[in-house]
Amino acid sequence: MMEHELLSLISVVLFCGCCHQFIKTIVTPIPLLASERPYARAAMQLGKFYKSVAWGAMTGAFLVGLVVSFQQVFTAL
Q1: How many CA atoms lie within 13 A of 24 on its CB side?
Q2: What is the 3-class SS of 27-62, one letter each residue?
Q3: DSSP code of 77?
Q4: With bands split at pLDDT 50, 70 and 90, how would you rate the model's confidence at 34?
Q5: What pLDDT, in 10s, does the model give residues 13-31?
Q6: What's the predicted TM-score (pTM) here?
Q7: CA 72 → CA 6, 26, 35, distances in Å?
Q8: How far apart are CA 23 and CA 52, in angstroms?
Q9: Torsion angles phi and psi, residue 29, rounded to 5
Q10: Angstrom distance (rounded) from CA 15 to CA 21
Q11: What is Dmax (Cα atoms) for the chain?
């Protein structure tokens, strides 16, 4: 029983951390220095897109883990 509660706590913490990084990645603007060269700006936009996809996938994976661990805890109660 205690290990389910511990796994639930860990999944909540990891989910919150991934949400924070995901939102931070989306909200962070591309620097103005990249606008001097069009290819540099395009490369930074592509990098931001891939970073957003990666953090989004990790957030989704931890959300599934969070739901599964809470389901296990509440069915054990």
Answers
A1: 8
A2: HCCCCHHHHHCHHHHHHHHHHHHHHHHHHHHHHHHH
A3: -
A4: low
A5: 888 888 999 999 888 887 7
A6: 0.73
A7: 12, 33, 50
A8: 9
A9: -75, 160
A10: 10
A11: 60
Task: Return the ∠ at Cα 57 (arms to 47 and 11), rounded to 5°.
Answer: 130
Instruction: Look up residue 23 and give its two tokens.
Output: 């939102």
Token pair 């990249």 is found at: 34
Amino acid sitting at position 15: F
Q: In this model, does residue 49 exceed pLDDT 90?
A: yes
C-beta atoms surrounding 11 within 10 Å: 19
Q: Which amino acid is at 49?
A: F
User: What per-residue confidence (pLDDT) applies to 1?
Assistant: 67
Residue listed under structure tokens 């599964």: 68
